[in-house]
Amino acid sequence: MSEVTLRLTGVTKTYNAGTPAAVEVLRGLDLALTKGEVVALVAPSGAGKSTLLHIAGLLDTPDGGRVEIAGADMTGASDHRRTVMRRDEVGFVYQFHHLLPEFSAQENIVLPQLAAGVPRAQADARARDLLGIVGITPRAHHRPAALSGGEQQRVAFCRALANSPSVLLADEPTGNLDPATSDTVFEALMTLVRETGMSALIATHNMQLAARMDRQVRLEQGRVLPA
Ligand SMILES: Nc1ncnc2c1ncn2[C@@H]1O[C@H](COP(=O)(O)OP(=O)(O)OP(=O)(O)O)[C@@H](O)[C@H]1O
């Protein structure tokens, strides 16, 4: 049986519970990603995509249900354990790159590794490898402001994967780019995910990109359904 890297079971989330302003966003949501699987998350605006990604990435806690990452049940885990798990096992990519402006592309990929205790030489080698996979080795020593939007996003992917997480969570990772750039940057992301063997849950409104992933799921009425 394939190894499950992310499993959400019966996850519920209501904002402002018990008040007239209550919003029941997740209503017993089940979702499992197996190792190496790339899943498109398609959701109408306001369906709870950010809520789902935040809960899956341990940035928020569900009201009920279970979140397991790399086989570990995170129910009731301490803040410290959640932070360590997030640092080591989860990579995030957003629409905007959020790179540190005063550091080079290479340094942006090295820093999270140093924070996780990786020796500098090893972190540098990993950063070089990742930049090579996404095809921007010549840009390694540029700061983000000196990179194109597509290059910035490729660096953000490398940074998200620097600590070899089990799961990548991405929210419209190419949403800021023009269609042609979006296409090549998406290819770079797929190559990275394939070469590192991780699982990825990628929220997108772009049905052409969704079709290129292994599987598509739809978030609707608080649950995940096949698309
Ligand atoms: N902190 C909060 N307090 C109250 N309601 C919230 C809060 N955060 C989100 N919501 C509501 O929960 C619902 C889901 O929000 P969420 O941000 O997860 O949706 P989304 O699918 O990511 O939307 P979009 O695609 O437009 O970003 C929305 O109706 C939103 O208004």
From TrEMBL:
GO terms for molecular function: ATP binding. This is Lipoprotein-releasing system ATP-binding protein LolD. The keyword Repeat does not apply. It comes from Marivita lacus. Residues 6-227 form the ABC transporter domain. Belongs to the ABC transporter superfamily. Keywords: ATP-binding, Lipoprotein, Nucleotide-binding, Transport.
